[in-house]
Every structure is written in C-alpha cells, then in structure tokens.
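MODEL INPUT / OUTPUT PAIR
PAIR INDEX: 1
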Amino acid sequence: MTVGPGPDVDNVDAVDAVVLDIEGTTSATGFVVDVLYPYARERFGALLASRGDEPQVARAVAQVRDLAGEPDADAGRVEKILGEWVDADRKATPLKTLQGILWAEGFARGELVSHFYPEVIEVLRGWAADGARLYVYSSGSVAAQRAWFTYSPEGSLMELVSGFYDTENAGPKQEADSYRAISAAIGVAAGRTLFLSDRLGELDAAREAGWRTVGVRRAGEPYFAAGVGGHTEVSAFDEISFARSVR
C-alpha cells in the first residue's frame, strides 16, 4: 500500500513505524524559541524556589549541578545556568526536564497551544489510519512532547502516537545507539522504521542504526542551509510516500 503522493522513500520495501522529530520537522523552531523558551525562562525561578523538593525537580537540579561542575550551586545560580543553556540552545536533559514541567502545565492551563506545519496533522492521521505506528523522538522531554500532542490547534492527537522518546529514555539524538534502543523498545525492525528530521547529524545516526531516513527541509528553519546530505529530501510531509508491510 502506498501512503500519500510524492517521491518514494529510497530503498524502502515496507515501513511499519515512523519516528518523528518535532522542532523544524513537524513544527516551527521559531515557535519553540520565541514562545516556549521565554515562557519557561520566566518561571524557572519560581519553580526552583517553591517546588525544589519535588522528586523530578530535585533530580533535574542535581543534574544541572553535576553538568555545570558546581555541586554547591544554590537555586539562584541554577536558574542562571539554565538561562545560559537556553541562550546557547544546549540540549541538556535537566534543562529539557524543567522546561517540560512548565510547558506541560502551561498547555494544561490553556496558556499555550502547540504549533504544527499546515499539512502535518492530516498526513499523520492518514499514516495512522493506514496502519503505520507513529512515535516521537525529540530533545524536548517526554512530558513536553505529550503536552505538545495533547494541546494541538486541532485538539488532542494522542491517539495517533504509540510512544514518546527523549534524550533521557533513549539517549542523545546524534548517537546511533539511541536509535537502536528505540528499535528494541518498540519491537520494529530497524529496516522497517522511518525517521523524519531536519538535522543531518540525527539522520546520519539513524541511518547508522539501520533506519530509513527522510530529511525535512523547510525554508526559514535554522538547519535549512546545512542540507540533509545523501538522505531523501522533502519540504513537507505530503511529499512522502512509502509502502506498508502486509501482515
């Protein structure tokens, strides 16, 4: 069965699982940078001051101190470190954890609504209806990913997604072992798993793990100029087609 119009994904006999990056792929990086980053940054101080004893917050703070090499950093210093990491767009797990807590709560309160490129939701619904299992693998925390797909402009999309992976439960996105870990977790052969991302390093790591890959290049995104190397290239999801295995 062919899914969607457009060029075939190279060398794919069949795809059973599609793994999605978010920033620059399903959604605009500008929304994350201009809306979500400031939202969390303005609330880091209050979170650390009032909820520092919560297990998830305390664990993240300990990780910040460890990564920064400052075991005695107080809440004020931790907040400053987090701000520096935001400015550097550092994909640090404890930063993503704390951002995810704040974003999830902001989505739940109706203060935030996630962004998707215009064609994405319809295409994802089509793939899911045709039997493809959809997963998310993002540097943003699983909590943030769940909120993103729960509070979309078209309502909850959670029924479309079979699982969520981040740098904590899978590993760094530019290391092949992270993709191997996801393959083991979802129980789908690497050769029947398709990864969509805008970052060449991630695509290379997924291919090294045996996954099929498509580079999504959207004009205006930060990694557009870098290209996608030798990976199949599209500018939108509705340009992708692939066969589903028959079971």
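PAIR INDEX: 2
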Amino acid sequence: MRLPSTAHTTRPWRIHEIAGDFQVEDVWALPTPGGPDDLPHLVRQIANGAGDGTTISSPAYRILFSIRWKLGKLLGWDKSGAGLGARVQTLRDRLPADLREAPRGPDVHSAPFVSVYQLHDEWAAEIANRTVHAVMHIGWVPDEAGGYRGQMAVLVKPNGLFGALYMAGIKPFRYVGVYPALFRAMGRKWQANAAERSTS
C-alpha cells in the first residue's frame, strides 16, 4: 500500500541526517508483518534476492527490467564512471562517527544497491548511475494490529533535467508493472520464511 511522504519524513530516521538533499519519491507499507526484532530478517531477504527475476513471476516486471538494463548498457547509463565514487560520492562519506562504526549491512545481490548502514529499525542502501542517485530506505515500524512491519521509502536526487525527465517517465511503469509484482513476491517469501524467523 502506498503511503504519504509524511509516513517517512515524520519518523526520526537517521537517514534524514545524511540525505536531506534527496527528495522522497515513494513510501510503501510492506507485506511483512512481524515482531519488534525482525528487521534483520527482512534486510537479509531483500539482499539475498527477494525481488529478483527468480522470485517474481510477473512477465511485465521481467520485460520492464530487461528493457531498462538493455537501454542502460546501450546508452552507458550504468558505466562504472557514472556511479558511486565517480559521478557522486557515496553516502557513507557523510555518515557521523556512530553510524560509520555501526554494522554496514549487506549489499543487494540482485541489483546494484550498496549498503550504507544498518540499525535495529532501519537500513539504507544506495545506487547511482547517469540518471539518478537513489536510496532505498527500509524502516521497521509498528502496525495497526499491534505488531510491526517493513516500510520502504525511495529517496532520489535526479541527475539534472535528463534525470528528472527519466524519473517522471518511468513512474507509471513502476506503479503498474514493478511495485505490485515486487511486493507480492516479497510477501510470499516472507510468509514462506515465517517458521525460520520464529526459531531464530
């Protein structure tokens, strides 16, 4: 379920300290009900590939990502000189000392997201290319049923006019073909791993 930006901006996340110049693109409630200490399970699930082509059966999702990666290769959007440490500095360079010393968290295997930091209730990972510098922020929040669930915010800093046009152009595809398939797969895998979480 899509949430208002305030669902992210009003919480005291540490990401606000280091990504204040990014705009909130999307905020979503994730289908991942759990207990107060379950964020590491969700981080591990995302990092290990819940949301890659092997867990998502939607043809639209697979086609959209295939087109995106082929265009990126053809137009040079994803070259090493366009990413972190080249076109933009990694957000790890902005971290205060306590976050720099905290666990960094895992990188995402199925997409070029690099972990910035991981805490008990939040995890941030970043990606950069010729179109945008973006952050996937996963928070762990109380839900209306008295438990907890994941919440994902996408924060972006488009690369000039081209980046802004790119983000506007892909928005309908993200809402129709990407997010619904991604979250269905995430929810299925989360439910399938319920027994593992209860014994850890």
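PAIR 2 NOTE: Strands lie at 23-29, 114-118, 122-128, 132-142, 148-158.
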